[in-house]
Specification:
The chain is α+β, with helices and mostly antiparallel strands. Helix content is 37%, strand content 13%.
């Protein structure tokens, strides 16, 4: 995965060198690093494989601590 501007690289659908799953993981990572008080997640893990998705759910729990969180998704699995 190559990000020409590193952290500042703009992630978009036109960025063809990244898969949708890679874009989703980068956006989640940025949300974690930014430490904002409000988190809006819009179907962000729809293109991630099942094993990675389980790990992401675990990380999301930590990411959502002490934050107002809005999750927009077709399906969510809580374990």
């Amino acid at each position: 995965m190559k990000l020409p501007e590193q952290y500042d690289t703009i992630i978009s659908d036109e960025n063809n060198n990244l898969s949708r799953g890679e874009r989703e993981l980068i956006l989640l990572t940025r949300a974690y690093v930014k430490e904002s008080r409000i988190l809006i997640i819009d179907n962000v893990i729809s293109n991630i494989d099942r094993i990675t998705k389980q790990k992401v759910y675990q990380c999301l729990r930590k990411l959502m601590e002490n934050k107002t969180t809005i999750i927009l998704t077709d399906k969510i699995q809580c374990e």
